[in-house]
Amino acid sequence: MDVRDVAHLARMHITAEEATLFQSQLEHILDHVRDLGELDLDGVEPTAHAVAVQNVFRVDEARPGLPHAQVMANAPQARNGLFMVPRILE
Amino acid sequence: MSGANPYKVSIGLETHVQLKTRSKIWCACPNTFGSDPNTDVCPICLGYPGSMPVLNAEAVKLTVMAGLLLGCRINHYSKFDRKSYFYPDMPKNYQISQYDQPLCTGGSVPIEVDGKPKVIRIHRIHLEEDVAKNNHFETASGVDFNRAGTPLMEIVSEPDIASADEAFAFLQALKQMLVYGGITDGNLEQGNIRCDINCSVRPDTQTTLGTKTEIKNMNTFKGVHRSLTYEIKRQIEVCEQGGKIMQETRRWDDARGVTTAMRSKEYAHDYRYFPEPDLMPVVLDDAQIDEWRTALPEMPQARRTRFITDFGLPAYDADVLVADKPIADFFEATLAAGASPKAASNWVMTELLRMLGEQEWSVSEARITPTMLADILRLLDEGKINNPAAKTIFSVCFTEGGDPRAIMEARGLAQVSDEGALDRWVQAAITANPKSVADYQAGKKAALQFLMGQVMRASQGKANPPKVMQALKAQLDG
Ligand SMILES: [Zn+2]
């Protein structure tokens, strides 16, 4: 694990000093997770959730969204009802 | 492709289908098309931190029903995951999708190309959220979130598709099944169905798949066909020249008719999927799945068979009518309104389809209803109008709607069968055309058609043609 790769994936800028510091801190965390991997978990069902709740559904009913002015209130730039962002390159 | 081709083509399609729900997948915002930008949105579909998604039950039902239609295995346990990426169409920087435990696995779509049947296997179907729509301008881009959070089903095929024609047939067949099933509106202009293409070629003798390229975001079936035709040829040419296919994403340039490599992105595939903590798993039991199975609507094949056996339609008619569900629905509703199957079928296949084609309309855009068509056919059947008048009334109903009988009366289209009036027209035609009369009596049968035409003209098309023929013959032969 290279902390600079992780920073890049998260689109975070970190300095060389931070990279060194976070590298050792993150490695500690990963070591701890590795310890968990040592446990004998045969017969334990993997789970994605800590609580045994399932099938939380919403009935398919529509209601109007937010008023448009409120939607755009936090937009740094807007034009023709759109959120304007720097030109997207493909 | 001919058997002599030394290359094998393997194409897999990832087809994204917008589900026909009233509301979005995680929030109650309307799932509609064509609203003003950013008006059908709320903090959830805008991806605001702290907002909580709640799964739309109907989206699960429709995805499972699609799975049942395609013969998939419905998984009893299914969960949602976060797929991380950075793009302005998804401000929370992850799309909620399903990674390792999708709703449906396996299945297939039967297709037919050049009369040869083939089965394209389905790998899986999962449920996810659609993303916002970007509009690109000269110096900036603009984002509209109305589409964000539309329930989106991704159908991943196995790489069983071997040509552009097969890809086209697959998409057509898939669309027909899903529209019949009421899963999606299937409107390509509104982006209801979009797909990503994976394509590779390999020498005939090689067993493992060649390196694939991906063509993203195709929104027409014709575009899929054209881009594949180009891409297959390109890949074969690269191989022929001893080159290597690069694993890359390519963009289809519709205007130039070519695919071009997109700027390759580092980490492009590092989506770092992990379980979505805000959504609970979906657990389905057999009773629930069976209930949805019984609710499945009739599929085109079954409907075709029923049209042939129950209504006595020729196979050709049945094929034409079932090809498009709204047309088949219109036809059946016309029967329900009292029309005879063969007459209704003829009028739907000729007049209705022709006029829809001319206007480039869907059935719902035309003003004519099945009841109006049944009424026109009844007037025709009762001898109140003749065929040309029926076509005129049909055309008025098609563009303006209205009561066929009222249109008949308002436009004076009622057929004249009254013998006194017919005799007067017939007598006038005979008096005015002595040469034709002589020709007919000398054995030239065509002269009778001419006289008939004269009578129809004098009656402004309203005379009852069989009665005119009868009256003419009575006068001339008698
Ligand atoms: Zn919303």
Which key features would you list for this structure?
heterodimer; A: 90 residues; alpha+beta; two-stranded antiparallel ribbon; 3 strands; flat; B: 478 residues; Arc Repressor Mutant, subunit A; 3 domains; 15 helices; 18 strands; binds zinc ion
Question: Could you give a short description of this structure?
Answer:
The complex is a heterodimer of chains A (90) and B (478). Chain A is of the alpha+beta class.
Account of the 3D structure:
- The complex is a heterodimer of chains A (about 90) and B (about 475).
- Chain A is an alpha+beta fold and about 90 residues long.
- Chain A has a domain at about 1-35.
- Chain A contains three helices and three strands.
- Chain A is flat and about 55 Å long.
- Chain B is α+β, with helices and mostly antiparallel strands.
- Chain B has three domains: about 5-290, no CATH class; about 300-410, no CATH class; about 420-475, Orthogonal Bundle (Arc Repressor Mutant, subunit A), CATH 1.10.10.
- Chain B has 15 helices and 18 strands.
- In chain B, α9 (about 370-380) packs antiparallel against α10.
- The mean pLDDT of chain B is about 95.
- At the A-B interface, α1, β1, α3 and β3 of A face β2, α1, β10, β11 and β18 of B.
- β3 (about 80-85) of chain A pairs antiparallel with β11 of chain B.
- The complex binds zinc ion (ZN).
